[in-house]
Amino acid sequence: MDILREIVLVVHFIGLASLFGGFFVQMTAREKVINNAMFHGVLVQLVTGILLVGLRESQELDVNQTKVAVKLAITAVIAVLVIINRKKATVALPVWGLIGGLTVVNIAIAVIW
């Protein structure tokens, strides 16, 4: 079961890289968009995050439910922003910045908390 959890964790990191990478490559672009990397990255983050919590609980390992709830709420907000703005030709800079900012906050919570 540990191997499965580690594989899901690696996929979770790949989702993070996709989401943040999709955001990061647009830093110098004049027109901001929600690209496929961001869309698929946030979906992978949601699914694998839930799987990671479920796998930890199935192994009767400690789970900080407050941390999980905060991270899930932030990821849900990111997902909603990405899905709503996905088909738009351009995304307003504040919305695009909020997606990136919340992603960084989620990373910080994962590492520091």
Question: Would you give an account of this structure?
Answer:
This protein has 113 residues and is mainly alpha-helical. The chain has one domain (2-112). The chain is 77% helix and 0% strand. The protein is built from four helices and no strands. It has helices at 2-24, 36-58, 65-85, 93-112. α1 (2-24) packs antiparallel against α4 and α3 packs antiparallel against α4. The radius of gyration is 15 Å and the shape is elongated. The relative contact order is 0.16.
Q: What are the SSEs and their pairings?
A:
Layout (H helix, E strand, L loop, with lengths): L1 H23 L11 H23 L6 H21 L7 H20 L1
Helix pairs in contact: 1-2, 1-4, 2-3, 3-4
Low-confidence stretches: none
Q: What distance separates the N and C termini?
A: 25 Å
Number of strands: 0
Number of helices: 4
Helix content: over 70%
Biggest pleated-sheet summary: none
Estimated structural class: mainly alpha
Over all CA atoms, what is the radius of gyration? 15 Å
Mean pLDDT: 96
The shape, in one word, is elongated
Q: How many domains make up the 3D coordinates?
A: 1
β-sheet strand percentage: under 5%
